[in-house]
Amino acid sequence: MDLSIFSEYGPRLLAGFRLTIICWLLGTVFGAALGLLIAVAQRYGGRSVRWALQTYIELIRGTPFLVQLFLLYYGGPMIGLRLDPLPAGLLGLTIYGSPYFAEIFRSAFRAVPPGLIEAGRAIGMTELAIVRRILLPVGLVSAVPALVNFSIILTKETVILSIITVPEIMYQTQYMATMTFTFLEGYFTLALFFWAFVEVISRLGRRLERRITRHLIERT
After folding, report:
1. Comparing C-alpha atoms, which of 22, 24, 18 is closest to residue 94?
2. How far is residue 11's CA from residue 211's CA, in Å, rounded to a whole number?
3. Residue 209 pLDDT more than 60?
């Protein structure tokens, strides 16, 4: 392995690392927020709202992320939606992740004992308060493992953004490999980065799960 190439291309790789983390973080946060809104709307919306949201979920889950990204970035201008690569990538990650997060939240809501919800209504809590103070705190205990697992999946989906020239870590690795013909060094470094990244997310997820469980025990 020729490690000398990292003295020249190291800054580009580090910039790609930072952008990958930013894309993952924003895509996860926005995707989870949109997924939560979808799950709440499915629970409290009318039949037509539930049907429309379920169609959206099935459509996004049933098509590859790469196809969605192409339609958004290359097909968007045909309907007046012109986005630079980075905003298009972030929007693509948000759209792609939202149905999966919505299903995770929906399952978590259904796992909450009905007695807790009835008790909240009995003391005069609004539906919004029930979501904020009962469904979310209690449901998160069972949802955290699934949320962390899908967040890990999203870390690997960020490499697809290189197809539309988002300069994240895959794009920078391919650039270095093309310029120097040192494919082993670049892709081995890429693999190490994602392995370490996933390990950090997994450990943080387990810590978050323990904290939520301990908090609920203390409240009861």
Report:
1. 24
2. 37
3. yes
d(CA 177, CA 23): 22
The pLDDT confidence band at residue 219, using thresholds 50, 70 and 90, is low
pLDDT at site 174: 92
Q: What is the pLDDT of residues 113-171, one digit of tens each?
A: 888 888 988 988 888 888 888 888 888 888 888 999 999 999 999 999 999 999 999 99
The rounded mean pLDDT for the chain is: 90
- Global pTM value: 0.90
Residue by residue, DSSP assigns the chain as --TTHHHHHHHHHHHHHHHHHHHHHHHHHHHHHHHHHHHHHHHHS-HHHHHHHHHHHHHHHTS-HHHHHHHHHTSGGGGT----HHHHHHHHHHHHHHHHHHHHHHHHHHHS-HHHHHHHHHTT--HHHHIIIIIHHHHHHHHHHHHHHHHHHHHHHGGGGGGGT--SHHHHHHHHHHHH--HHHHHHHHHHHHHHHHHHHHHHHHHHHHHHHHHHHHH-
Q: Which two tokens stand for residue 32?
A: 């989870």
CA distance 125 to 130: 6
The two three-digit tokens of residue 132, written as one number: 């904020």
* Single-letter amino acid code for the residue at 37: L
What's the pLDDT band for 50 if we cut at 50, 70, 90? very high
